[in-house]
Specification:
homodimer; alpha/beta; Rossmann fold; 8-stranded mixed beta sheet
Chain lengths: 348, 348
């Protein structure tokens, strides 16, 4: 079956694609969280994290996915919490989460560091405790985790498909609009550029043995534009560009800033993203009065009107096992908090 | 770019697609494990688990995936270990694993049940221990986990792509051939039917904004046939069929048995798989001497020559929170162990 590709605006997308089942419950909880944080005078950052899926069948067996373990988002969320922000952590189901990320079931399984103590009395259930060599590390993570839960500054919600993500992002950003300039958006999720409209999906599992698989997908609408202009005017918006071709990094980042008019694009190369990123923003240039044409120099100036800030950390070439490794997210968050604070203060 | 679909036999697949980087190290470890188990007289089951990916780019950003958390495989592995089998657990990176599966970071995060005890002396690092209400459950899992590790009866290896999976399966099954009838294969992984040959992959991230995405994939070669005939003759092979259309379940399962000549297909419907599966096998019918043509009756008999064994468990409609839930994998493994044992004993 060959169908014509459809071009979706954000508006036509939401008018034709079904909303996720628990959207209203999710939104109600976000509203309570935002109200509490606003009352307590905290800035709130929405951190999106992990990849989105594009189901190919209505009864989902197969889907297209984007590579992302959720490291960037989960790590950054921890540093935002440390910096005093409240965090709405909107992440792909089963992707990494702040705090527990240190104990992946594969690389640092927690069952390995639990000891069964000798029972204190005959017949008593023995105590289980953390093995002494792991105590210090875990204590740090656990203390931070318990503090965040006691303060109530972390709210978690999950998505799976790109459709879940788009509906949630719109709803959550509208809830955050009341925070005005105190709202930050840190859009680190790896969102699919393509999707398959429900109307084109096959109901059952696509059968093999009938030749080869051929999929045609439509483009996901660009939602940064309505996010900036309509859903949450006033928010400080940071988006990410991941490329595998270094040469495309800056042009793509500049294009995004130009097109959507938000505050920062953080560009990163797939293979260098753990130790190098670039912040791309628009420099503030005076607008020409209407009727006056731009001179050649002004055009040149406009082309140079992006600021680029490279952030690099040195990773040890041969790290010692168990030696703490500097995380670039610490510096990314520090720089963003600085910029966000300045931006709040400079608002008339 | 439109290229003609290629049909791959298992042979042409392995001749043209690159082997994964750590294949040899992985195989060496499997060989040691198999040697140890053979010496100690244990039966060994290879459990494959989780979905495989199909990368769309050489620098992987996007991939096709198959729905699977790895619950079936991880749960079954635990019951095989309980039944005295040694288990090679070959699973998708980050999918569920035996034992730790009970403590998913999302549904039962382990940080929630750790208490920081008051320090025993000033300046000492405080002990961290499991909160009393969680002790009994965790003790059971932890005890089983520690026993398995002490005995050395669980070996874990991981795959991500369908290419990793195919190369590993071939290599591991060849290593298991020395076990003869004591080797079981429990192929619960959700393996893609389609793939994109390296030769057709784009090097960099597919750019959006150039119209819609169109992907054409080739069929993954059917590897059950060479597994049965060449790689591990003598092994007891169990494969799975997952369908979303109930009506296709039995025909598809019978077709697989007919085509590949292995021992059991376990058919399951996507929405009923937690409480209902069907074992499909070939009944042993006497072969006609050469030169004698089949009568109509014999043809009819051949059509009826499959045995079907439905396995169902009753799930409580309103389960009590924290009440232990019966897992269908317990019964699946019990039935397979029974069949496997009988099959070993009846071998001339």
């Amino acid at each position: 079956m060959h169908t014509e590709p459809t071009t979706f605006s954000a508006e036509s997308y939401f008018a034709t694609q079904p909303s996720p089942q628990h959207l209203q419950q999710d939104v109600d909880k976000v509203r309570d969280f935002v109200t509490k944080q606003a009352k307590e005078g905290r800035s709130v950052v929405l951190v999106t994290s992990g990849g989105t899926t594009v189901p190919l069948e209505l009864n989902v067996v197969r889907f297209l996915d984007n590579f992302s373990a959720g490291t960037r988002g989960a790590t950054s969320a921890e540093y935002f919490l440390k910096a005093g922000y409240a965090v709405i952590f909107m992440h792909r189901q089963f992707s990494l989460q702040p705090f527990s990320r240190h104990y992946s079931h594969s690389t640092n399984p927690f069952l390995d560091f639990l000891d069964i103590d000798p029972p204190e009395a005959a017949g008593a259930i023995p105590r289980i405790s953390v093995t002494p060599s792991k105590r210090a590390d875990l204590l740090e993570v656990l203390t931070a985790y318990k503090e965040v839960h006691a303060r109530g500054t972390l709210h978690t919600l999950t998505f799976v498909t790109v459709n879940d993500y788009l509906w949630l992002l719109r709803a959550v950003s509208k809830e955050m609009a009341v925070l005005k300039r105190r709202a930050m958006f840190y859009l680190a999720a790896a969102v699919s550029d393509f999707f398959l409209p429900t109307q084109k999906m096959s109901e059952h599992k696509i059968q093999s043995g009938k030749g080869n698989l051929s999929i045609e997908m439509d483009q996901v609408p660009k939602i940064l534009k309505p996010l900036v202009d309509e859903w949450t005017p006033g928010g400080y918006i940071v988006s990410f560009k991941l490329e595998t071709d270094q040469d495309l990094l800056l042009p793509k980042a500049r294009q995004a800033i130009e097109r959507y008019g938000h505050q920062v694009v953080i560009g990163n190369d797939l293979h260098r993203r753990k130790f190098e990123v670039v912040f791309v923003s628009k420099k503030l240039v005076p607008t020409l009065p209407p009727g006056i044409e731009q001179t050649k120099e002004a055009t040149q100036q406009a082309a140079n009107s992006f600021s680029e800030y490279w952030l690099r950390i040195n990773l040890p070439e041969h790290p010692l096992p168990d030696a703490p490794v500097k995380e670039i997210e610490e510096d990314i968050v520090q720089e963003l908090v600085r910029r966000h604070t300045e931006w709040i203060e400079n608002t008339p």
